[in-house]
Design goal:
With 354 residues, the chain is of the alpha+beta class. The protein is built from eleven helices and 13 strands.
């Protein structure tokens, strides 16, 4: 008698209620959750903590070095296990670059439904993450694993930065220009992929951008005219630009026509391929985002679109703009573009889109 055939493994995205950085708790709800947490004593060596909603914590070790510590993990945004691991690792390491630092090592965070996924599939996820760490020049030095209902993978990423080169998202200044390093649209593409409506060319573009390490970060941080850095991830361009405005007590202005978009995503958004996180993001911004009266629904969806492994958002002086753009170009970020600027706030900090 023949042994029964082993059932086919499910698609990775079918195991997750939300993929990539679209899994993030919405900004408004997160603020509500955190407001009741007790304040703890802050040592003087802690240069960056939770007070500015920054990308990572930074702790000064000595006059020349500060340690960057961050963690990021999520559920599958794609079905290919190797690509999922690559995207998750790139996204986690991005927070080190966004603080102006260089990564030094990582720890793996792994939660897998071991009765659903084969050891081969899980191994491919981990190998995908390891391949990105090799590209970044760092080891995976340990980690933690659990048996989980949903597939979860990510990293604890550690890096080093000179204390004088730490770049918070809260240090933008009036008169600064804003430069975005990668085009938007990852969330829209992931929504189309989950419904089987993203072609091979679109998938290739999605993988290319989500697995591209934000290596310009340390060089940008060392430029004297760069005041603030962050990366655009789960809260969308609007959410992370608003965090910059609130942290600096300024007004951030976006020129929507100048914002780079991935090819085809506006058409996909118009067809309804939008993540649930996009709407939650919009609801979480409150009244602090101003849009033009005729702003199209698909444009709002892209403005709030959760980016997984998104681009760096840089606030810099006009005099340093050429050096900033040249740095992006040198690292292969051909679509980096000036997308707006920073002004003094006339009232409460806010984001104004034109």
């Amino acid at each position: 008698m023949n042994a029964p055939e082993k059932p086919a493994e499910p698609r990775l995205t079918s195991l997750s209620h939300g993929g990539g950085c679209g899994c993030k708790i919405a900004p408004g709800l997160l603020s509500e959750i955190l407001k009741g947490t007790a304040a703890m004593p802050i040592p003087k060596e802690l240069l960056v903590g939770i007070e500015t909603a920054d990308d990572a914590a930074v702790y000064q070790l000595n006059d020349e070095q500060a340690l960057i510590a961050t963690t990021d993990f999520f559920m599958p945004i794609v079905d290919d296990p190797h690509d999922f691991g690559r995207i998750a690792a790139t996204n986690a390491i991005s927070d080190v670059y966004a603080m102006g630092g260089r990564p030094i090592m990582a720890l793996a965070l792994v939660g897998m439904p071991i009765n659903v996924l084969s050891t081969q599939t899980i191994g491919r996820i981990l190998e995908g993450g390891a391949s990105v760490c090799r590209a970044a020049g760092i080891p995976i030095a340990g980690g933690h694993t659990i048996d989980s209902v949903e597939a979860i993978y990510g990293l604890v990423a550690l890096g080093l930065v000179h204390p004088k080169h730490v770049k918070r998202n809260a240090d933008a200044q009036p008169g600064d220009l804003l430069v975005l390093g990668k085009p938007l649209g990852v969330g829209v593409m992931s929504a189309a992929l989950k419904k089987g409506e993203l072609g091979d060319a679109g998938y290739a573009r999605m993988i290319e951008t989500t697995t591209k390490l934000n290596t310009p970060g340390p060089e940008l941080a060392a430029l004297p005219g760069v005041h603030a850095l962050t990366d655009v991830t789960g809260f969308g361009l609007a959410g992370h630009a608003l965090e910059m405005a609130r942290g600096a007590r300024c007004e951030v202005h976006l020129d929507w026509a100048a914002v780079p978009l991935m090819s085809g995503v506006r058409e996909l958004a118009a067809q309804g391929f939008v993540t649930g996180a996009s709407g939650r993001n919009w609801a979480g911004y409150g009244s602090d985002v101003s849009l033009p009266a005729n702003f199209a629904a698909e444009d709002r969806a892209l403005l709030t679109d959760p980016q997984t492994s998104g681009g760096l958002l840089v606030a810099c002086t006009p005099a340093s703009l050429d050096a900033v753009l040249a740095t992006f170009q040198r690292h292969g970020f051909a679509q980096a573009a000036v997308v707006g600027g920073v002004t003094a706030a006339s009232g409460a900090p806010r984001l104004v889109v034109a």
